[in-house]
Amino acid sequence: MTTYIVRRLLWTMVVLLGVSLVTFSILYIVPNDPGLTIAGPRASPEVRAEITRNLGLDKPLWVQYAIYINKILHGDLGTSWIYRQKVTETLIQRIPFTAQLAFAGIFFELLFGLPVGLISALYRGSFLDRLLMVITIAAISAPPFWVGPMLLFIFALKLGLFPVGGYGSPIHLVLPAVTIGLMGGAWYARIFRSSILDALDSDYVRTAHAKGQTYWKVVFKHIIPNCLTSVVSMFALDIGIFFGGVVVVETVFGWPGIGLSAWKAIRDMDIPVLMGTVLFASLVVTLSNLMADILYAFLDPRIRLG
Questions:
Q1: How confident is the model at residue 175 (pLDDT cuts 50, 70, 90)?
Q2: Of 53, 81, 117, 217, whose CB count within 10 A is highest?
Q3: Taking a C-beta distance cutoff of 8 angstroms, is the pair 102, 243 a contact?
Q4: Does residue 233 sit in helix, strand or coil?
Q5: In order of start, what are the domains of the chain with their CATH numbers?
């Protein structure tokens, strides 16, 4: 196990290096005048040129990348061109808000997806099963950039049950969490349903019934624990995606997390913030995948990590 984890961590470094290279190349090849971004449209050409030199952007691209990697190795993700704040400090300030939204969204995914998948599988072929599957298809087909405004319009503007975006109390979390968790919860439901249906026809379930165990004991003691591995990988990926910042949802609801910061960086062409956000999101995704593999080993003793 230790050898496997060390090997995966080394590969994580390789992945992050590749992400940094691709992101750096794309963002610095895109036509952009940092002097115009920082000093404004009324700045003279001389001022813009001075800003470019001070930032080291007049050097060859490979030299700029080497300087960037050296800073990363020393824990420096750069400084925002717009707000003149360290990118690392910006991420540290935003992470708690994004973490709250991420855990709330995952909670809703599990609260919605696992019971729906279980009920649908246990009553397969029934009207309830078909109805629940239709609902999950509708949820999968509804993108967050549409769901978010609709929830705001209905439950905030029309009914007045929730605040119109912002941050401040647990009730502010409800609509954003539902928005990011609806689609994922529907996927959980369908995958969990499929796993349970396979388990219901398996030999170990028939053996448990033959030994005289009750139906619900077999379901909760044997079937559900064995089917949880089917959603572990999705769970880990969701952690990585949500912690990396959900740009659309945080922007729609004015949630002060990493996603909103990334959107402002895209709008303002604040390259250091955008690159730092992408690199941080990549790190979280790769580490969450490693966590998923480790969880597999604990949930299923048959799995051996070499």
A1: very high
A2: 117
A3: yes
A4: helix
A5: 34-76 (no CATH), 88-299 (1.10.3720.10)
